[in-house]
Amino acid sequence: MEAKKMAFDGEKLKTAKVTQVPQSKMTGECWPVQFWGFSACDSCEFKDTDDCGGPDIRKTGKNSKGYKVPIR
Questions:
Q1: Residue 4: its pLDDT value, please?
Q2: Ramachandran angles phi, psi of 27, nearest 5°
Q3: How far apart are CA 57 and CA 9, in angstroms?
Q4: What does the alpha-carbon distance between residue 57 and residue 36 come to, in Å, rounded to a whole number?
Q5: Contact (Cβ atoms closer than 8 angstroms) between residue 57 and residue 35
């Protein structure tokens, strides 16, 4: 699975980052954390709420399949 992260300065592309993650290592837990690591939590509106998809990942550093995040 390919994930792309882009940042724009107005209409101009400022930065772009692409990562490949084997889908077989992914779980239904928070995908941004599995792709990008814990920095994804910094701007997440669901952090520390009941709607957070990755509280166990944040506690253990691994998804429910046991893969360390971010997955590479």
A1: 79
A2: -125, 180
A3: 32
A4: 13
A5: no
* Residue 53 pLDDT class (50, 70, 90 cuts): very high
Residue with token string 């954390």: 33
pTM check: above 0.85: no
Give the per-residue SS3 of the chain: CEEEEEEEECCEEEEEEEEECCHHHCCCCCHHHHHHCHHHHHHCCCCCCCCCCCHHHHHHCECCCCCECCCC
What would the two tokens of residue 63 be? 């998804």
Q: How confident is the model at residue 3 (pLDDT cuts 50, 70, 90)?
A: confident
